[in-house]
Amino acid sequence: MTTIMATFIACGGKYDVHHETRLLLGTVIEITIGHPDEGLAREAAAKAFAEIERVDALLSGHNPGSEIGTLNAEGASEPTAVSAEVFALLERAARIASLSGGAFDVTIGPVMDQWKFDEGGRVPSDAEITAALAAVGTGKLQLDPARGSVHFLSPGMKIDLGAIGKGYAVDRAVQVLRDAGIKSAIVDAGGDLRLLGSRPGKDFWRIGVRHPREASRLLLNLELVDTAIVTSGDYERFFMDGDARYHHLIDPRTGYPAARCQSVTVIAPETADADAYATAAFVLGPVEGLGFLRDLPGVEGVIVDAAGQLLWTDREKLRQ
Ligand code: ADP
Ligand code: MG
């Protein structure tokens, strides 16, 4: 289960801040809108939630009627046509797979299935991991832009958009708020946040990020404007087997949870990218992960390594 990491610290101000919470995408979605007209804010929030539901219905691998569900069922037998929207998201995922040297890989589905996190989790055998890994690799995902089709080049392949879909849904929700005339808002999908403008009466939104080992302690307390901030942590979905912690951020090279970080927080213009970059940096580990984030223009991040040490891309750039 995903926990809520963001905590908003009230800053006062004249405007009413409209706040609504719903359970969607398997997590708690919170929308905060700064607007003097409560009716308009309420209407805008309803549209944004509806957009998140639409994106979920499109991308959810659990839903056999979704485009991704259909693709997972048919993509290995023949090139399968998908909507332009899904095609663009898969292309974006493939680009980030390549940028991260394969640390981020949406074809991780067959390996995720083996770990059964949804059913409490179990440690697969080496043979099960090896078999599942044979069907993993963005290189085996053939995207045909001319036909808008997707073909799995290996049987048993399965797309899992868990590390980018939520961020994408948040970006879409923010676009809907913008179209409704909102200039100040936060959309938070269980720790994947996008900020629109700043808090009314202030020139920033104050965002807290929880400590990966102490839920009630803040790791970061930042003043941010018009940006996305996403955290991937080993405490979000995990099970313990003796002293070993098995979590949901899987290294596609080994099929096992990546062990070198406790959490990675990424700040980037768009939530979909921040979401994927956070997973990628987590899998790459603190040294390579920090290098990866530093090479991305307009991106900042904070990594907590396995020993609890903080590594910053550029501490000066983040107003605390
Ligand atoms: P959360 O959803 O808890 O915020 P992430 O955004 O990091 O965390 O996404 C984790 C999810 O992404 C996993 O539950 C799984 O569905 C998928 N996933 C796991 N490992 C990878 C990986 N190396 N590359 C891409 N997706 C991954
Ligand atoms: Mg992610």
Features:
eight-stranded antiparallel beta sheet, T-fold, binds magnesium ion, alpha+beta, binds adenosine-5'-diphosphate, 31% helix, 320 residues, globular, 8 helices
Describe this structure in words.
- This protein has helices at 38-59, 67-74, 84-99, 109-115, 126-133, 165-179, 271-284, 286-294; strands at 7-8, 17-24, 27-34, 80-81, 141-144, 149-152, 185-189, 192-196, 205-210, 218-224, 228-233, 238-241, 244-247, 261-268, 300-305, 310-312.
- With 320 residues, the protein is of the alpha+beta class.
- It folds into two domains: 16-56 and 164-317, T-fold; 67-152, T-fold.
- α1 packs antiparallel against α6, α6 (165-179) packs antiparallel against α7 (271-284) and α7 (271-284) packs antiparallel against α8 (286-294).
- Helix content is 31%, strand content 26%.
- The chain has eight helices and 16 strands.
- A hairpin with a 2-residue loop joins β7 and β8.
- It has an eight-stranded antiparallel β-sheet, covered by helices on one side. The protein has a three-stranded antiparallel β-sheet with strand order 1-9-10, with no helix packed on it.
- Magnesium ion (MG) binds at residues 163, 232, 275-276, 278-279.
